[in-house]
Write a structure and sequence with these properties.
The structure is a homodimer of 320-residue chains.
Chain A (H helix, E strand, L loop, with lengths): L8 H8 L9 E3 L6 E4 L4 E11 L11 H17 L4 E11 L5 H18 L2 E9 L4 E11 L14 E5 L4 H10 L7 H4 L6 H10 E6 L4 H12 L2 E5 L7 H10 L3 H7 L6 E5 L4 H7 L3 E8 L5 E5 L2 E4 L10
Parallel strand pairs in A: 4-5, 9-12
Antiparallel strand pairs in A: 1-2, 2-3, 3-6, 4-6, 7-10, 7-11, 8-10, 9-11, 12-13
Chain lengths: 320, 320
């Protein structure tokens, strides 16, 4: 049976991981940005792992090995930050091909160390092996103050849905490259995740948090599913950079679709009680309110031009 | 520059990881079976990660997906056990191909869970993606009592070198399969690592410990390098199973070479003061004394038929 026949990747994970695990040390297993484990009296240990495959996640003709290394670290750090955590240590596995040169590895690791230094993450272990294409896996551990842990499941009716920075840059950059256009948005080749200190400030005010791996629509969907709520996203409020608007215009595409369905922007999506908003704004202001958490019965939908667009299963992600 | 030109995998890791890391939370970074990190007052956190690539580490025609999943867990648990630790949690990354079937994944995870259950390890996180061949990565965390932590660097002159169980089964099994022989040793398709309770009993008596990933010669070499000592391995004392002896005889090979250079047996190699030997034997007896730790100046060598065979760089691993 093909994986698509059971509903794709998320359905596969649900199927495989459905085994009941009963261990008091597990605060949160599969189903959030990180696993959360008991650690010290005040802190949880959070752990995330991400795999990047050549030709699937990065094309060596586009990405320099330095950029690949950076992205590998940013992807993982983003998951820790989205829990309200501080990343600490990283463990890498690399499958090289017979043709991989030492210089490629030097640059790859330079990128990993550059991003790691920025985020205070030390690379302390790993495994090196061979394959037909380059495959990289990074596991990052972090710590989170127990009271700051923010899960996908914390959203409450009436919360405002917010997103940091701007969205869509990653997908717009990819499409420019695919179309052979000279320009590209830096977000595609050099995505940068939010810092732990930003994540912590948000966590002090927010109820739920997730990073943008698969696009705003998917992330809001995850929050709603985990929290048992509905949501409205106000399309015109989604923050787009001038680069994304320009790219969409050049390519004849809708820029909001990049933000909603593009993914890998590594910004943070969070939900926050309206009374907490001004307190957050005083300390951190680089975010936009893009919608509202509704009762479950309201469903999950996009409000655009006074039209309700359901974001259920049947929605075609790249329909214009 | 080719990786072989700088001296292969270990030289590459030395080169890439040479950056000085100065963080008091790192007890031991790269260079042992696990990274060792500060954790609680009495315990360290240990973390290991291992990648398995289709066609490189397992051939789908030989291994069932259940066996692949089991091996993935055993490989990692073995590293934790070799530190004197107790494995706790696992994090998986899987690159599937477009052709991978749901049934394959079901069996793979059944193998992972079967081995995990045996060792008390819970799978609590992961990542699923796509590639041209199946690539699996598992990261396993564990805990070790501070006083039981055993590193490669703890060997002392006069220590006896010991190894659990029997060696060579993995390599003998592989060669039988490569030769198209009907029989095979189970150690190749279904390697089993030692349990945490066995590792802990050994740790209470031993000074240094490592698991057999790359063959006895390589592991003793790692211990000597990390401990700044020399060693003599008494070839005829290396424990071989009847299956390995039979396989070598069928294939016209030297069974000791399987043990010395074959690898992936997942037994434990440890060094122990002669005065501690009988105390260990009372609690755990499935091991053999195969040599002695010598002063550094004595070098690292194999004693066989009253001949000294240097195990330096120039030794041809599979010369008969």
């Amino acid at each position: 049976m093909k994986i698509s026949q059971i509903g794709g990747e998320f359905a596969l994970i649900d199927r495989l991981m459905s085994k009941e695990v009963n261990d008091p040390a597990i605060v949160k297993g599969v189903g959030d940005d990180c696993a959360v484990l008991e650690y010290t009296a005040d802190k949880y240990l959070v752990v995330t792992t991400d795999m990047m495959v050549e030709n699937s996640h990065f094309t060596s003709g586009w990405f320099s090995p330095f950029q690949v290394g950076r992205k590998l670290m940013e992807v993982n750090v983003s998951d820790v930050v989205a829990m309200g955590g501080v990343p600490r240590f990283a463990f890498i596995s690399v499958a090289l091909t017979r043709e991989t040169e030492v210089e490629y590895m030097d640059e790859l690791y330079r990128g990993i160390f550059a991003s790691g230094r920025k985020h205070g993450v030390h690379l302390v272990g790993g495994d090196t092996t061979h394959g037909r294409e380059i495959v990289l896996n990074l596991t990052v551990t972090g710590e989170v103050e127990k009271e700051l842990l923010r899960l996908r499941s914390g959203a409450k009716e009436g919360d405002l849905i917010c997103v940091t920075g701007t969205l869509g840059g990653n997908q717009a950059g990819l499409e420019l490259l695919l179309a052979g256009k000279a320009g590209h948005t830096a977000e595609f080749l050099e995505p940068e995740c939010r810092s732990a200190s930003e994540g912590i400030v948000i966590a002090r005010h927010a109820n739920a948090m997730i990073d943008v791996s698969d696009g705003l629509a998917s992330e809001v969907g995850h929050i709603c599913k985990a929290s048992g709520v509905g949501a409205r996203i106000d399309c015109e409020k989604i923050p787009l950079s001038p680069d994304v608007i320009k790219a969409a215009s050049e390519l004849g595409k809708d820029p909001y679709n990049y933000a909603l369905y593009g993914g890998e922007d590594f910004e943070l999506v969070f939900t926050i009680g309206p009374d907490m908003l001004s307190g957050l704004r005083e300390k951190f202001d680089d975010f936009s309110v893009v919608g509202e958490i509704l009762p479950k019965g309201a469903g999950i939908f996009l409000a655009r031009d006074n039209t309700r667009i359901d974001m259920g299963k049947g929605y075609d992600h790249f329909a214009e």
